[in-house]
Amino acid sequence: MNTSLAHEKILDLDGFLERRRALPPGYRLVFTNGCFDLLHPGHVDLLTRARALGDGLILGLNSDDSVRRLKGPERPVVSERERAFVLAGLACVDFVVLFGEDTPLRLITAVRPQILVKGGDWPVERIVGREVVQADGGSVRSLPLLPGYSTTALIERIRSGR
Which of 17, 131, 147, 152 has the fewest CB atoms within 10 Å, measured from its CB? Predict the structure, then answer.
């Protein structure tokens, strides 16, 4: 079993900021975040559409402790290292940075993306980091979700044996 699960796209904040300095002028960075506990078609669809809005997509990934606080003691099903590795393997994801807080505000403030994206279950006015991105002249988008997919529903389906 590979216990390292290292990938060049998985960075800490300092590592990302160093890479960001090397990006060309005018590079449009898109940011989204989430738990991404059990990757499903709705996740891939959202990430692909988010990436299409700019030149690169940084995904802020909730740490295991953060997921437990947000989703309950039985979550995450998949560890942060495994989730980060799977997400880094997607062509539409350019950078993965873990964060341990309940919201990505500190990460967004440090990253300063031009475009901030969340799924359609988040109205724009409730998206964390909106003020930071808009103050810099960036845009905030709430993209419609692919109907019929959610991690919670997937977990329930597995538990019920369907």
Answer: 147
